[in-house]
Structures are given as C-alpha cells and as structure tokens.
Amino acid sequence: MVANVLRLVPAEVEVQCESGATILEAALDAGYFPRHSCRKGECLACESRLVSGEVRYPDGVDVGAVRPGHCLTCIAMPIGDVVVEALGVCATPGRPVVKTGGRVLSVDRVSGDVSVVQLQLPPDSGFRFAPGQYIDVVLRDGTRRSYSMANQPGEDGHVELHVRAVPGGRFSQHVYQRLKPRDLLRVEGPFGSFLLNPTRLPVVLVASGTGYAPIASFLRSHHDALQARGVAFYWGGHREADLYAIDEMRRWEATSENFRFVPVLSSPEDSWRGRTGFVHLAVQEDIPDLSAFEVYACGNPLMIEAARTSFVAKSGLAPDRFFSDAFVIAAPAASRA
Asked: Does the residue 225 lie in any domain?
C-alpha cells in the first residue's frame, strides 16, 4: 500500500499518510497537533487551507460549509501528495498519542446527570497531556467516547473526567449507573488543540454544561498566568444544578485577584437571583468591545457557533482570537464530555 506525503506549512513538516487515513490522523500519529476538536467533520475547528493537492471525504458527508480552497483535516483523505496550511504546528513533534488501560479510582455523582470520574493510567505509559486536551475511551466494539481532562497535568498518570449522562448513551449511562472503582477502561490520547495561547491579552472563558472540564484544567494549571492577564469565566446551564462546581468557582472568585465568575441560567428556578438568558449574550452585555480580548469557548456546538458569530460581528473580536472545543453529540452512539 503506497503512502502519500503530507506536508504541513509553514512549519515545513513532512509525514507519511497511509491510504485511507485522514490528514489529521497522519499528523497525530507523527506527534503533530494541528487545530482540531470533534474529529467528526462537524465543528469546523480543523478547517485548514489546502495549499496544493486533492482530498476526498467519506461518502455521505456534507462539507458544504467548508470555505473554497480549504478542507476539514479530521475527515479529509489525501488523493496523492498534499500540502496543508497548519498554523500553530511547530517543527518539533509534541506529545505522542498513547493507547493504554486505565483503572477507575472513584466515581462521584455530582449532579442529576454528571459524574466526576478519577482514572489512573500507568505512570510508565508515557501519557502526558496539556490543559484543554481530551482522551478517547474506546469501547469493546471499537467505538469511542471523548472526554476532556479537568485536572492539572502531572507525570503520575492521573486523569479526571466529567461525564454527562446522555439519554440513550451507551457509555455515559453505564458510567452513571454501573461504573465503579477498580473497573478498567481502554483509553487513547491525548487529542485536541484547545490550548491557552501564551499572550498577555485578557481572557474570557465561556462554557456550557460539562464544557467546564477543560476550563477547570485551564484554571488549575494556568492560575497565575491567567490572573496576571485578567480572566472572566461565564458558565451557562439550564438550571443551577447544571453548574455542578458553582461553589468551587465562587470560592475561586472570592480568593483570587483579576478573576470574575458569572453563572448564567437559561431556565432558572424561581429562587435564582443571578444572571439569566444565553451565556454568550451575558458576555456581550458586560464586555461590548472584545477587540482586546481572547475568548475560549467549550461545550455545546450551537452555543459556540452563536458566540463565535456574534463576538466577531458585533463585538469586534478578531476571528483568530476565538478558540473553541465543541462537545459534539452525533447520536446516542457518539458524544463529547
């Protein structure tokens, strides 16, 4: 089987792409991390300029939203050699993708539909992640579920996952109803390019539901850097119970400088005295001009797209200062977070 050559510019990195493999798969296998999120062709985070060459997509996939001259690297398969613009990829390979097993340490049901799972991977597995990345849990039939790490990275193999019970979801319902300490899970990762940009610009963090998980990893890992820049965290949910770490965030706000926490509910109980409505609109009410900010949004893809569109069109946010991680639910068979 003949492999195609994939060149990533401007880093001038060349990797082999086996027939039938996607551009993203080839890059990840070689230790390079182009921008990506859902890996299903739905969130458009991986849209990249196709400098030269041709690609094909799986049958039945709608790529009508892709800009001319661009491709979705997570589902695009090269036809021959290709050159792709992958901004942010450096010439030195990063953390390798690791396939290993993990043992469940604890399962804490923190709300009516969210479980916090503490998982222990072998310390010698080589698994290392950056705040904002995620792992895949691989089920027996080979299907996958993706969850962002919520803890601060370390070298001990410890991983914290926040799992929302999706109606009809095979794995998430298993987690909520039956998963217990000492159970074993097959995992693969890390994946994702939802990483904090090392600038001095003030930061707005926006999350819905379990989109809080990568935000928690950001806050726990980059606490001093974020405080130096100034950070506001807007967390949206339907009811107060959806904001399952609201007390922790309020303590952070009370004890931190330059950190503001704004919980926003769209369907609040009568007793709620906080902000209401859509979370992205609350951001714009407080910060009408986002031209001097970076925004990091994660969670529901509809929220993310609404925020991206509105922030750029109405609040002056530069498109390249909006970073996102969409938690895509393609069906009961596929979920993020």
From this structure: yes
